[in-house]
Write a structure and sequence with these properties.
The chain is α/β, with parallel strands linked by helices. The protein has twelve helices and 15 strands. The chain folds into two domains: about 120 residues, Phosphatidylinositol (PI) phosphodiesterase (TIM Barrel, Alpha-Beta Barrel); about 160 residues, TIM Barrel. Keywords: Membrane, Signal, Transmembrane, Transmembrane helix.
Length: about 350
């Protein structure tokens, strides 16, 4: 007897095909990405090349420079709060050493409370950053723009920006290593609390830890929420098969397609063949992290991969990345074809999530 889910998918695909084939023969623009839409520019830790990373001031500048998504890395404090912080320790990016003695031999985020972390100031580390944390023509719109924010505060900033500007910039949180179940669950709870629950809210969740990707996916389903899931790691080929190596080992693209919707990989290992292999499995490919020191260098580094069909990328310099994407010329195609491709792609993801 045929599975009811399979029957529904077959009927939906048939209806979609009929709709596409009966559509007027007009022309629409498409890019070489899996979705046919323009590649996304992800503000890596905010405008981290110019201003202190993972701060509200840095995220605000990234939004003004044209980011499609902002990326907060997420760590959990000693009292269970979620803060935007890339490192597991506080001393690389903040003035913690001038205010606190080491704890347990260091300055781990998990050894400090949120109240203690809120006393710290994040300092600039980007290659083009000014020592006084300023950017020409930019004045942050909040008090204390370079304190360590919570994930909730980052989401509040993004919501306010989108509402004020009529935009739909997304958020791309990373659950940091090592595997931390309370952290994963708290990320989902915070997104739900802040109203980031549906596909149109444009949430992409990422981790180098496969178990975290799986757990966040399960939590999304339990809460009736929608988001894209991405497995992070480095491009590898084993026995002639492409895959990604994360913190807990190598997994083929086919194995990743069973739990996620995309991969985020170090750009140095990306080839056109890897992108094609991922797209064949309906996986998007996002590259990290481009740090060009000029717009010209950005074109040299990024543009070839966009021509291969790269779906998006992380950069410390949103303005340079935006310029490269905006230079792309979409290819005209019959209007029915993007509709068909996008719809069938969505059905594949639905089927994968239901049967994984």
């Amino acid at each position: 007897m045929e599975n009811p889910m399979t029957s529904r998918i077959t009927l939906a695909a048939t209806a979609l095909l009929a709709t596409a084939l009966s559509a007027p023969i007009a022309e629409a623009a498409t890019y070489g990405t899996l979705s046919g839409k323009a590649p996304i520019v992800v503000a890596h830790r905010g405008a981290s090349g110019y201003l202190p990373e993972e701060t509200l001031g840095g995220y605000e500048l990234a939004l003004k420079l044209g980011a499609d998504y902002i990326e907060p890395d997420v760590q959990m404090t000693a009292d269970g709060a979620l803060v935007a912080m890339h490192d597991a320790t506080l001393n690389r990016t903040t003035n913690v050493e001038s205010l606190f003695a080491p704890r347990n031999g260091g300055y781990k985020v998990s050894d400090f409370t949120l109240a203690e972390i809120k006393t710290l100031t994040v300092e600039p580390t980007g290659a083009l950053a000014r020592p006084d944390s300023t950017y020409p023509g930019f004045t942050p719109g909040m008090a204390d723009p370079y304190k360590v924010p919570t994930l909730g505060e980052v989401l509040d900033l993004l919501t306010a920006h989108n509402q004020a500007n009529g935009t739909s910039v997304g958020v791309y949180p990373e659950s940091k290593t090592p595997y931390n179940s309370p952290q994963n669950q708290a990320i989902i709870a915070t997104l739900k609390d802040k109203g980031y629950t549906d596909a149109e809210d444009k949430v992409i969740l990422q981790s180098f830890v496969r178990a975290s990707v799986i757990e966040m996916g399960e939590a999304l389903e339990e809460q009736g929420m929608q988001a894209i899931l991405a497995q992070l790691g480095s491009v590898r080929m084993v026995d002639g098969v492409y895959g990604v190596a994360g913190t807990d080992g190598f997994f083929t693209l086919a194995e990743i397609a069973g739990i996620a919707d995309g991969v985020g990989v170090s750009y140095g290992g990306i080839t056109k063949e890897f992108i094609d292999a991922a797209h064949d499995l309906d996986l998007v490919v996002h590259a990290y992290t481009f740090r060009p020191l000029s717009e010209a260098e950005a074109f040299t580094m990024i543009r070839p991969m966009l021509d291969w069909g790269l779906d998006g990328f992380f950069t410390d310099y949103t303005d340079f990345g935006r310029a490269v994407v905006d230079s792309l010329a979409p290819v005209p195609v019959p209007a029915a074809l993007p509709l068909l491709a996008a719809g069938l792609g969505g059905l594949v993801i639905l089927r994968r999530r239901k049967t994984a």
